[in-house]
Amino acid sequence: MLSNKFQEFYRYKITYSISIIISLFYLYISLVTGNFIDITSKELATNGAIFAPMVILENEWYRVLLSMFLHGGLTHFALNTISLILVGRAFENYFSPWEYISIYFITGIAGGVISIYFHPLSVIVGASGAIFGVFGGLVGFFVAHKNALGSEFKEIMSSVGMILGFNLAIGLVFPTIDMVAHIVGVIIGFMAGYLSINSKLFWIFNVVLGISIYYFSTLVLTKELLIPLLN
């Protein structure tokens, strides 16, 4: 029994490892704040969430990465962790560990950076941008292999459409959810997943995207938001 559990963990090691890290972060912030159910924006900002004045004025860019492991409450944490396990395990069947890690982090970081541009005074946390990136990557992979899938392709896309529609509906019902990160994540993830049919193109895309994110962060964000934030 224990051997079977270990085999399952090893098969989906990236998904379960990220889920464990997210869980440990939530446990940590719950202990630090003394609140397990809902964590305030101030407490999140103090503990590493994205908040443009701190990111740009204090040069605390590490928050873009750290915020991917933080969540604003038990419901937020539970929904994202469950979604990651469901989507991530499916994703891990088709992508290598390094492809998974690449898509997860580059979509999560891109979502966080673009969110700063659109919501400069909001406190931003959550793994949903990266999770949508993984989801988009899975869709891109299926589209790239639609001929091989044959009649199964329509069935898969129908299920994908329902899942995507459900998640977008949740974002509309709960206005505090950052839809920008979701949209950025799913678009970039789709492109990366589609390009995964050619390993060279996949990694070129990731390198170019990484460089673009860097320059957008250091030039565009700083130029556009520095003066307004100082005022």
Automatic annotation (TrEMBL):
<keyword id="KW-0812">Transmembrane</keyword>
<feature type="transmembrane region" description="Helical">
    <location>
        <begin position="64"/>
        <end position="88"/>
    </location>
</feature>
<feature type="transmembrane region" description="Helical">
    <location>
        <begin position="156"/>
        <end position="174"/>
    </location>
</feature>
<dbReference type="GO" id="GO:0004252">
    <property type="term" value="F:serine-type endopeptidase activity"/>
</dbReference>
<keyword id="KW-0472">Membrane</keyword>
<comment type="similarity">
    <text>Belongs to the peptidase S54 family.</text>
</comment>
<feature type="transmembrane region" description="Helical">
    <location>
        <begin position="202"/>
        <end position="221"/>
    </location>
</feature>
<feature type="transmembrane region" description="Helical">
    <location>
        <begin position="100"/>
        <end position="118"/>
    </location>
</feature>
<feature type="domain" description="Peptidase S54 rhomboid">
    <location>
        <begin position="59"/>
        <end position="196"/>
    </location>
</feature>
<dbReference type="InterPro" id="IPR022764">
    <property type="entry name" value="Peptidase_S54_rhomboid_dom"/>
</dbReference>
<dbReference type="Pfam" id="PF01694">
    <property type="entry name" value="Rhomboid"/>
</dbReference>
<keyword id="KW-1133">Transmembrane helix</keyword>
<dbReference type="InterPro" id="IPR050925">
    <property type="entry name" value="Rhomboid_protease_S54"/>
</dbReference>
<feature type="transmembrane region" description="Helical">
    <location>
        <begin position="180"/>
        <end position="197"/>
    </location>
</feature>
<dbReference type="GO" id="GO:0016020">
    <property type="term" value="C:membrane"/>
</dbReference>
<feature type="transmembrane region" description="Helical">
    <location>
        <begin position="124"/>
        <end position="144"/>
    </location>
</feature>
<feature type="transmembrane region" description="Helical">
    <location>
        <begin position="12"/>
        <end position="29"/>
    </location>
</feature>
<dbReference type="InterPro" id="IPR035952">
    <property type="entry name" value="Rhomboid-like_sf"/>
</dbReference>
<protein>
    <submittedName>
        <fullName>Membrane protein, Rhomboid family</fullName>
    </submittedName>
</protein>
<keyword id="KW-0378">Hydrolase</keyword>
